[in-house]
Amino acid sequence: MRFWVKANSSVYQNAGTTLCANNTAVQQWNDLSGNGFNATQATSGVRPTYFSSGANGNPVVRFAGTHFLDVASLGINGTSDYSGFFVVKLTSANAGGTNDGAGDYVLDRTTGTNELYDIKVVASGGTNRFFFQKRNDGGGNLGGPTSTTVIDPNGFQLVSIDRVYNSSSNTLSRIYVNSILEATQSNASETTTPPNMRIGRHATNTTGGMNGDLSEIVIYNNIPSATNKQRIESYLAIKYGFSLNQSTSINYLSSGGTVIYPATTTHSGYVTDITGIGQDNGSGLNQSNSKNQSSNDFIRMQNPSALSNGDFLMWGSNNATMITPNTVDVDGSAVLRRLSRVWRVAHTGNIGTVDFSIDLSIVPGAKVQADLRLLIDGDGDGFADNDVAPLTGILTGNLFTVAGVNFSDGDYFTIGSVSPGTTPLPIELTEFRSTCHEKTIDLNWTTISETGNAFFVIERSSDGENWLDLKHIEGSGTTKTYKKYSFTDGFKKNELRYYRLTQVDYDGNTETFDLISSNCINGDDKMIIYPNPAINELSVELNLSKNYGTAEIKIINALGKLCLLEKMELKKGNVTIKIPLSLKSGAYTLLLHSELVNFSSQKLIIQ
User: Fold this and answer.
1) Where does a domain end: 357, 391, 417?
2) What does the alpha-carbon distance between residue 531 and residue 538 come to, in Å, rounded to a whole number?
């Protein structure tokens, strides 16, 4: 490591003796690498400003167009590898070109030298992006790679650049955003000596500076290994409340290499807005309060009762809707509905208990404190069995808080309600069914009363998880008379389809009903399951018009986890299959399919 500055340590309002207080100008930002390359600014009028909170509760150094700090040469020679990590938020950005000195600069040199190692703003595809501008010692090969990720004015981004030198082949210049390699430029072997650094502004363009915050910069005179890069990125993401890009799954690691969020394995379905708290003496992390900066995330964890070195509590979501509730994966008596979105926890060490809160502003309808529960599924079979007793909390505005929560590794959690709503249900639905025809499927539903019913939403899915909005059908407002509704959808032979119906009232409140499945197979082929509810054995009775080959019976829980798998031969005629069960109480789905036939799914209740 050649250079390391972070806004939560050694930021001074003078030449290194008085630490900055909130909203004071920065004269010196000390290098923590041990090399003494402090960033300084002798001129008071162009000093950036220190703020004690601004990045997930951590300090920031704020630049305003003309502000900058200078750093002497880092002593990296022109044929060395180079890598730099920059945690930055550009609240506004002016774009320049890839081959000029215009636009806003996060990093440049102190004087107009030939050699360049810059980060600046350019426009690509009509949006502002990060650009790694480089030029060799002889003034040649001006250019560089541009990020594909757009600059986010509302959140911090981890922008990383590196140079891989090769004396006998091409030298690579690369740019990454939030851990993902986004672009590479290849040039013939060239000598490029990193110049004296200017942080926050262009060397000679006095208005070519960034507008926004820097929280941490780390620079190496080598390329960290993939594992070490992962450690650095995990530390920065946890600390500053942003998520590593999971378009290619990547685990979060401690400074010692321990997996603290297994995004590639057990938690692969819960990789949206990964966030955490933890303490790691190896990296200097001590984050006891975190909320992801994403506008799509609503969870905060804080005040761990026993946080010490090596302890982490991490969580990520399945990114399901916050609008439409789940009324199936609940016990149906104490808890009547829950959020469709579910989070999963990874717990390393022992942080003790935490204070949990969730902002429910986005959730439609009125919220009543007495109705709300924090639901925790500790055994992975869904929330219907309440294996962890639902927890009550305090509702302040739209913020629901539960103090002293004890999460275990692998827990799932969400929010449930013991009431279907503080007002009467908008509609009384008497049926929702599907009927197969030669090339279409008819959906029909009826109501016997409606209250403030604006419209219905019909959705279709091939897997029961990812839904396509097909049609909005106008409701009848308020009525006490019998109403019939219908919708016709096309289909392909033997294609399994799921449909669900959501009602939306004039206030924006919603009610989603149990999904139905429709598979237009040979009308002579039938499947019946009994008893239902079942306890320790299930009978599957089949009446088949012909042989269908090898098939699988699957039973999955409400989280989509496979709980039972049986294989069999489907032969013409009547057959009854006995399946022994050892499943926990709750709601399940039974699927039977082969390459030649797919039966409609069956809802199964285990007592």
Assistant:
1) 417
2) 6
